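Before a colleague's protein record goes any further, I have to sign it off. Would you go through it and say whether the fold makes sense for this chain? Take the sequence as given and treat only the tokens as open to question. The record follows directly below this note.
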Amino acid sequence: MAEEEPVVEETTIEVEEVEEVAAAQAAPAAPVSAFDAVIEVGGTQQLVSEGRFYSCNSLKVEPGTTIAFERVLAVKDGDNLKIGQPYVSGAKVMATVLENYKGKKEIVYKMKPKKHTRSKRGHRQHLTKFLVTSVTP
């Protein structure tokens, strides 16, 4: 009995199709606005966008309260970027406080070698989570 040879189907791909696929994979995605404004909040600077939520050091405000950040360092208005010196006049970022919570526990361990002195403490930072509702340039 003779063994049958497996059937191999040949497919041809045109060079143009390969180039189109390669171009689609290599093409950068549509530019996404990384931020709408840069604000100063809780002793730090944050890049914020409308409709997103962020965490910062405790603001001592009840959840559900609407707050206005008027320390706006930079704001994007369409394609234009306004940069303040130090703040942009008239710019405002409105936000709603979602919750006050404690961050992840950080362990502080101190040891002096050969002295049998050791101390271990934990620390949880108080944080506030807020939702940016509007950015006014």
